[in-house]
Amino acid sequence: MSQHSEETVRAEVRAWLAENWDPELRLTEWRTLLADSGWGCPTWPREWCGRGLPEPLAEAVREEFERAGAVGVAQGGGTALAAVTLLEHGSDEQKRALLRPILTGEHTWCQLFSEPGSGSDLAGLTTRADRDGDEYVVNGQKVWTTSAHHARYGMLLARTNWDVPKHQGITYFAIEMDQPGVEVRPLRQMNGHASFNEVFFTDARVAAANVIGEVDRGWTVALTTLAHERRMADGLRSLVRGARGEGPIFDEYRRELASVMEPYKWYPQRAGRADLVVKRAQETGRLADPAVRQAVARVLILARTAEWTAKRAKAARVLGRPPGPEGSLGKLAASHVARAAADAHALISGADALLCGPDSPMDGVIAEVLVSVPAVSIAGGTDEIQRNIIGERVLGLPKEPSDAGRPFREVARNVGS
Amino acid sequence: MQFGFSAEQEEFRGVLRRFLEERSPTAEVRRLMETPDGFDREVWKQACSDLGLSGIHLPEEYGGQGFGFVELGIALEESGRALLCAPFFASAVLAANAVLLGATEARRKEILPAIASGRTVATLALTEPDGRWEVPAIALTASPTSDGWRLDGTKSFVLDGHTADQIVVAARLPDTTGTDGISLFVVPGHAAGLDRALLPTLDATRKLARLVFSGVPAEPLGEPGTGADALERTLDLASIALASEMVGGAQKVLEQTTEYAKVRVQFGRPIGSFQAIKHRLAELLLEVELAKSAAYFAAEAAAADDPELPALASLANACCSDAYRNVASESIQIHGGVGFTWENDTHLYFKRARSSELLLGDPAAQRERMLAKWGIS
Ligand SMILES: Cc1cc2nc3c(=O)[nH]c(=O)nc-3n(C[C@H](O)[C@H](O)[C@H](O)COP(=O)(O)OP(=O)(O)OC[C@H]3O[C@@H](n4cnc5c(N)ncnc54)[C@H](O)[C@@H]3O)c2cc1C
Q1: What is the ipTM of this complex?
Q2: Can you say whether the dihedral through the CA atoms of B34, B35, B41, B42 is positive or negative?
Q3: Confidence category of residue B41, pLDDT binned at 50, 70, 90
Q4: Does the distance separating the beta carbons of A282 and B4 come in below 8 Å?
Q5: Is B364 in Cβ contact with A296 (below 8 Å)?
Q6: Could you say which of A110, A319, A348, A381 is the most buried, measured as most Cβ atoms within 10 Å of its Cβ?
Q7: Residues A283 and A353 in one domain
Q8: Between A and B, how many CB-CB pairs are < 8 A?
Q9: Inside any domain, residue A182
Q10: All domains of chain B, ordered by start, with CATH?
Q11: Residue B264: is it exposed, middle or buried by C-beta count within 10 angstroms (0-12/13-18/19+)?
Q12: What confidence tens digit (pLDDT) does each residue in B251-282 have?
């Protein structure tokens, strides 16, 4: 991109912010302006709340927002997963109805994919949706559903055809969560938080107009969501930045972070906090130990090369490629970084790493790292699944024997599902 | 910082790859590695005249191509991929950088054009029998004489030291320690008082020599006693260059192993369909990609003269050393019995990986140096 157009864009966004940004506004008022102007989602198409800018220029826009201290559009699963999936597969009507409230933060979303009987083998799901007039009736159970307890909508995968191979009978719905047939029960995690839930469907209803993409063709739509999910952690890491301003809008924004974004509070810890390794090693005096120095150095090398590799993938995407299997490389790299960082933190903190109360290092952050890191290599597709994807789609290795060709009725399933 | 190559750079890579596939196939590598010289002067001269291989990053005023370190990195990646048997690293990287950074203008004009054209094969003699690639470890002494200087001491692990026409020698002035008194000299390969011996080594594709200096007359490159900074920087650039070379070899051996996993059938299916193999290859790909990022980023830092360069040089070297060694040894495992044979090419990469890992300091030492350069203590 030429220097000239980057400067033009920067000048434009600066002028727009000078004119419009006002911490006295209500949060939704401000975000409506963002959606109208397109500055909130610069890479999105002009007709859908964006400005059609390529990624490097969007980065420049974000920098200008940060410089001005302006609040952005709502973050989380709604924007990062639902909206991008709708942009790619939704009808114009659906985009008109659903995109804006996601950006303003009025609607939050959850991802109703995993089930007790099928996680990695997502296409083996057995939650059913049966047509009834203009609606579908949904029965079944989902699990590990992050943020379901306050979501307005769910991205629901359900089986609509049992007589075709498993990938060909799944439909993708936008289902309203606030209805009698949907029951959400929180699940306590090994780190003590309860950001994910079980969701039970008993004759729940979803309008046929809320099918995203085509009936029975939901797998393709799901792949879009999954590809974006592998890259989502990056965005969440920088969330808390920028929540420190003064004015009514920031009070609202902080309330949003404390409620809607609460489930993501421990996400930086699950990534291992490689950023704290050097600081901790210095403040504990452990850097004199050569074993600690080697561990610290390894974390730094992993973290930086993972960051550069993500930037290389991003640079390749700018050339027009959609998010593809390189997201799997990034996700796998993130697992390595997280584990190496957690191991280094344990080594650095020594016996203090045993504590998790008020006496624990950094107010419990280190303890939270140690018990949160195992999530990284499971959530959003396990490391094993990423290795399969890399092996088969990047390296072109032959697939394993599979059940994908048989009608789903005949496929072996877990007992009880 | 730029995270992709330009169309011109990709084109440059393509030209080099075609040349090397033609002139340095493994049959040729195997032939040359059995010879004492370890390279073919004619092919090397042609690579220098046709492709400018030996002067890629040297400024045009010294007969070079005037490109930067990114292009040099690309060329090294390709030479590593081809296991090129040639004095590329010794002459174009070690000696040329030492001269570029440590010589007077007159000396540069005198020495560099011949290196760039491939007429002269040069090298840098730095390490001594203790094997430490560190400036303070230099013990060979340079003493003033009535009409110049004389060198006394022993250099070891000198790349292409037994064949080089010109040898840049790192020496120290009498009664100095540490980085004080470090001086660069140049000595012709056939100088009187210089005894050169090829060292038998594990990796036959990279020739190393021991050089014993007994009162060898030598000409200073720059002001004697002031060479430490130039040498440090030469070592940083060498670490990055070697990282590029290693990443090229790692990528190639991974490709070959992946192909093998697709065609080798056991238990009625290709071994690459077994997760034990597939997952290992996926992890190796990740490791190679991370290593590439390190090598590319460090090469960009060199091109931009980034203040972080010394730390990034060690980072890239440590990261690429670990990746190459790991990929090469896993590749032998994935090949099974045939991987342990002389005839299969995998061991050539395995040995190159080991020799590279230890050439400029082992990965643990590089990591330690990285922390020190970042001031993390
Ligand atoms: C913090 C967190 C948040 C989550 N949030 C959500 C959410 O919001 N929405 C949602 O839908 N889901 C969510 N999940 C669920 C997550 O996507 C699944 O847990 C994950 O895909 C694994 O599925 P599973 O738990 O059924 O494990 P399984 O699939 O049963 O896997 C068990 C083990 O078998 C291995 N395995 C499975 N198949 C293969 C194979 N083919 N080859 C090799 N090994 C294999 C796995 O790698 C794993 O080690 C979340 C999970 C976590 C931990």
Answers
A1: 0.94
A2: negative
A3: very high
A4: no
A5: no
A6: A110
A7: yes
A8: 120
A9: no
A10: 7-120 (1.10.540.10), 123-226 (2.40.110.10), 229-373 (1.20.140.10)
A11: middle
A12: 999 999 999 999 999 999 999 999 999 999 99
